[in-house]
Design a protein that fits this description.
The chain is mainly β and 426 residues long. The protein folds into 4 domains: 43-124, RNA Polymerase Alpha Subunit, Chain A, domain 2; 134-227, Beta Complex (RNA Polymerase Alpha Subunit, Chain A, domain 2); 230-318, YbbR-like domain (RNA Polymerase Alpha Subunit, Chain A, domain 2, Beta Complex); 321-409, RNA Polymerase Alpha Subunit, Chain A, domain 2 (Beta Complex), CATH 2.170.120.30. It is built from 5 helices and 32 strands. Strands 2, 3, 5, 6, 8, 10, 11, 13 and 14 form a 9-stranded mixed sheet that branches. A 7-stranded mixed sheet has the order 18-24-22-20-16-19-23. Strand 5 and strand 6 form a beta hairpin. The chain is elongated.
């Protein structure tokens, strides 16, 4: 029987020094790999600002109240990855996994970034939130007319397609809802119309509550507009007469018509209304007054203007005819001693107005045209002539309107007396 073959066995005994050398070699290899990798593709950190935070859904009927502010996301990784990233590559969301009932919480913000990113954080890293139950309430939709609505129109707004709205939202917000309104703006509409309006939930002070949702999103509102009243002319009542020699030329009323309303039988027969009396006794100039419309029939009132008052202008002028008087000599007054004056022109045409009988008796001795140079020294001046007329004759204009006046000195200079060489004393 042959003996089995002998197989040599070797045992490697590693001493403590050998183990230390092995570990050191491994660490050195890792560091070398990291150094080579970092040298070729170094670390880089980048920030993305204003990243919106996604608020996920909670189990019904819970919901997060209000909004969550944007965050700044920082990412770190190889330059080859980080440098090519855009803001859309990162996202932020609330960690709502531990919330199962209403209350106030502080939750973490989870950051989602590409897999090659080594590290991603947000600032802030967590935010406070409020969680409430979502509830539903029904409200009758009220139509409401807004805008410049005057007394000339009767407005009636009606919801056409539905009468109720469903309001959904956080309990605290829905409990603040006082009513749901559909506001219609009238502006200058004068005929019936139908408009699509977004109903709005408001609080007791009519302030909107944006935290709730209103359904339906739009309703149709029909607005009926009925014109009121009738436009009638305004007549002016005058008391007294202007001063002697004056007359009423014209009268202007603004507005010339007013809108009145009252019983149909009375309004249909009404053509005009009158102002309260305006006294022009002794007037010599235009009279302007703001007066009320008076003497209206029973149950009739002025709608527009709302205060029932109008502006009246009574034009008054002197009686007579207008007459131009040409070639009226101009006199100089107030000229100092030693001075002389030259006029250009030295005569003007004067236009006057007066009763025809007076103009027939008017003479040149009753009409003087003067320029006053009092206090003026040598030089040339443009002066406005002064026209003096008898009573009840009015100066309207002069042509030309100004006179060129040149003032010079008339003093004779003293002779220059000098001794003559041939002169002999007596």
């Amino acid at each position: 029987m042959s003996s089995p073959a002998l197989v040599p066995r070797f045992r490697v005994r590693l001493g403590r020094a050998d183990i230390i050398r092995l570990i050191a070699s491994l660490i050195l290899a890792v560091l070398l790999w990291a150094w080579v990798t970092n040298a070729q593709d170094p670390d880089e950190t980048r920030q993305f600002s204003n990243v919106p935070v996604v608020v996920g859904e909670l189990p019904a009927p819970l919901q997060v109240i209000g909004s969550v502010p944007d965050v700044t996301v920082s990412v770190k990784g190889p330059r080859s990855v980080i440098s090519d990233m855009i803001a859309g590559d990162v996202s932020a969301s609330l960690d709502l996994s531990e919330i199962d009932q209403p209350g106030d919480y502080t939750v973490d913000i989870d950051i989602d970034a590409p897999g090659d990113v080594w590290h991603a954080t947000s600032a802030p890293s967590h935010v406070p939130i409020k969680v409430e139950e979502s509830i539903t309430k029904q409200f009758v939709i009220e139509s409401e007319v807004v805008g410049p609505i005057d007394s000339t129109r009767q407005i009636n707004a009606t919801i056409v397609d539905t009468s109720e709205a469903t309001v959904v939202g956080p309990r605290s917000s829905v409990d603040r809802v006082a009513r749901v309104i559909a506001q219609v703006t009238i502006e200058d509409q004068t005929q019936d119309f139908t408009a699509s309006i977004t109903p709005q939930a408001v609080d007791p002070d009519d302030a909107p509550i944006p935290e709730v949702e209103v359904s339906p999103e739009t309703v149709r509102v029909h607005v009926a507009i009925d014109a009121r009243g009738k436009q009638v002319a305004v007549l002016t009542q005058l008391e007294g007469t202007p001063a002697q020699g004056y007359e009423v030329v014209d009268r202007t009323i603004n507005p010339a018509t007013v809108l009145v309303d009252g019983p149909d039988a009375v309004i249909d027969q009404l053509i005009s209304v009158s102002t309260e009396p305006i006294d022009i006794t002794g007037a010599t100039a235009t009279v302007t007054r703001r007066v009320s419309v008076t003497g209206l029939p029973d149950d009739v009132q002025v709608l527009d203007p709302t205060d029932g008052r109008v502006d009246v202008v009574i034009q008054i002028r002197q009686l007579g005819v207008t007459l131009p008087l040409p070639a009226q000599a101009v006199q100089v007054i107030g000229l100092s001693d030693g001075l002389d004056a030259t006029l250009s022109p030295d005569a003007v045409t004067v236009t006057v107005v007066a009763p025809e009988a007076m103009l027939g008796d008017l003479t040149t001795s009753q009409l003087t045209v003067q320029v006053d140079v009092r206090g003026l020294g040598p030089g040339t001046y443009q002066l406005t002539p002064i026209v003096a007329l008898p009573p009840n004759v009015t100066w309207i204009a002069s042509d030309p309107a100004t006179i060129s006046v040149t003032i010079t000195s008339t003093a004779t200079p003293a002779p220059d007396v000098r001794a003559s060489p041939s002169a002999k004393p007596l």
